[in-house]
Amino acid sequence: MKYLGFALVFLLMCFAAQAQNKINGQVKDAASGELLVGANLILEGTGRGTITDFEGNFEFNNIRSGAYDLIISFLGFETQRVQVQVPLRTKLMISLEESSLFTEEFVVYATRATDVTPTTFQNIKKEDIAKLNLGQDVPMLLNYTPSVVSFSDAGAGVGYTGLRIRGSDQSRINVTVNGIPMNDAESHGVFWVNMPDFASSVDNMQIQRGVGTSTNGAATFGASINIQTDTRKEEAYGEVDNSFGSFNTRRHTVKAGSGLLNNRWTIDARLSQITSDGYMDRASSNLRSYFLTGGYHGENHVFKLNVFSGAEKTYQAWEGVPEALLETNRTFNLYTYDNQTDNYQQDHYQFIYTGKINRNWKANAALHYTYGRGYYEQFRENDSLEDYNLPNVVIGGATFDGMDIIRRRWLDNDFYGGVFSFNYVSDDAKWDVVLGGGANRYDGDHFGEIIWMQYAADVNIRDRYYDNVAVKDDRNIYLKGTFEATEGLFLYGDLQYRGVDYRFDGINNDLRDISGQVSYNFFNPKFGLTYQTRTGKSWYASYAVANREPVRRDFTDSPIIDRAPQAENLQNIEAGIKANHGKYSYNVNFYFMNYNNQLVLTGQLNDVGAYVRDNVADSYRAGIEIDGAYKITPKFTLGGNLAISRNKIAEFTEFIDDYSTDEFFQEEINYTNTDIAFSPNIVGSAILDYKLFKNFEISLLNKYVGSQYMDNTMNDNRKLDAFWTTDLRLNYALEPRFVKNIDFTLMVYNVFNRLYEPNGYTFSYFLPGEGGAGRVLATENFYYPMAGTNFLAGVKIRF
């Protein structure tokens, strides 16, 4: 309380010190008269800067009398320098001309939805990301967007994190960066831990829920996240961003950029380190990353080279907390071996071209290469030598068929390819057509090593006890377009072909030969319409089809490759209305996602005892999503979202291990009309923003997630309870003379110290009954708890 009191006194002193002299005004587009939101302004010679608000307004306070140069810049417009005499006689009205340099926005145009695209999406600006970015991974920063549930293995948002959208996990959410696919080709997942502090190099994001538009990478089966990295900055800058908080969490980031050199060239760089002890016992993280980009910006062409990398070392917290310990030892971690760690690094290289061919045609192309390598290390107590294809060890007449072992499981992979798009816009702007596609290859080497054994055996330290390679070729081409049939009525069509060739060769970690190959050819059509009224409303409806191949584990865990599960099929209907009326805006949409042959865990075992996924014939997700914001007063804004859904499997068969007799078998239990696992029927957020005074904002962020089942049986004993959490955010910006500005951010998470678990897993089995009579069903639940009340605080200084 003492420190909080000092902070409040300091803020009030700053507020009281505001002088009468000020520079204020408004920035507009010279051609259209449209207000420019987020334009950058620098008062030269004072080290102070600001950006325009939602009405295009700006203001500098506490300005000494005299003459100044005011520099105004905005992406896509020419930078303007205005001479200002203080005190001002009248409010400044500034109009910016469109830039003669070609804009970078077309880099992601082909993979994004626009205002006339009939699908459900949300755009997230750099300013919104910055308010939450204190070093946590991207899933935690998206926690308050519609239908999203975020979680963290370590319990504090640093390390292994994930998210679900409409109940679809990360392996069903397609992610692109600058139009280039980021999902792992084999698991279809995105491991955000390999991209630490990536949000600090992001300019904007678009989340499409449902199938969305055609894009590159693994097929979208629940949503897509399209990310554009930092775009051109007109002026040179430097930035130091440091944050610290609970669980010894630290984030150190340094950024710098050249601005526009010779009116053509730019260079930008970022270097970051994040460390945390984690909320869970020993769930530490040591994360390092960098981002380097250089570009040429011409009147009709842009060339960019992006190089970024992330390296992570995290102590494993994968097993979760057993239900029996959840009340008494909430931070329990099964692992105690000092080096029970995950170690991985990914290096990304992107060469991007975008340009204007003529008045009707634009083009975009990119080459990319990703090199990933790393391992996780495990201590295995009394492990069977047979599992490593090793003979028993005989020492002094004693025979050992098992012993303590330390092993490493490696993944060494290369992912490379190219993407492209051509955009045609007719002279009358009625036709807007994109032809695009890509071809990518993944080459992965999976192998395991024993690095230590309790007793010497006939094995060397780097001998591989399993080794297999996989090569996956993924190609797609799409043609999509919008046609304005009449005033305000837009027709949309999108046709995509996607082909996949996947082959395996070698021995899997369960010592089975998994050699084989599969091929798929998918056709994914999408159609829809949008109607925009003159009052600012937009109605839309669409029908889309997506097909997706099984993931690597579905193939390698199958007894023989020819019996692998079938490809999944999704048919998606989206319909909704969007409106923006100045003080308030809202989106209301309905969705129906009908699955054929969706892959789910059933408890069924393969021939070596590994659990496999199987197809269920019919399942669906249906719901309504509402999100919006209302400016109650100039200081108060209320925003939020609510998703209400039903997520059902028509028929489902569970397989339960039976150990109640001498002969092991699996019992089958049939279910009908059960909830899909990890699919809460209600997800909602409410955010209240209050501007106490200029540059000081207080936000109260609330999140509610309804109960969700950890498997598909709809059994109340295998369920995650509903939870409601509240976070508090304080943002304050100073504009001293010696730097452009200083931003202070304080996030207090879980203010009311709720105990909740957004993720977990479960399994059940039969055991002999008491006295050997009959049998009893035992269920084991494991949870990933989130931290109670904790905080992160940050200071960002811009030069």
TrEMBL record:
Pfam families in the cross-refs: CarbopepD_reg_2, Plug, TonB_dep_Rec_b-barrel
SUPFAM superfamilies in the record: Carboxypeptidase regulatory domain-like, Porins
Record organism: Belliella calami
Compartment list: Cell outer membrane
InterPro entries, sorted: Beta-barrel_TonB, Beta-barrel_TonB_sf, CarboxyPept-like_regulatory, Plug_dom, Plug_dom_sf, TonB-dep_rcpt-like
Family annotation (PROSITE patterns): TONB_DEPENDENT_REC_3
Domain TonB-dependent receptor-like beta-barrel: 328-751
Name listed for the protein in its UniProt record: TonB-dependent receptor
Membrane topology label: Multi-pass membrane protein
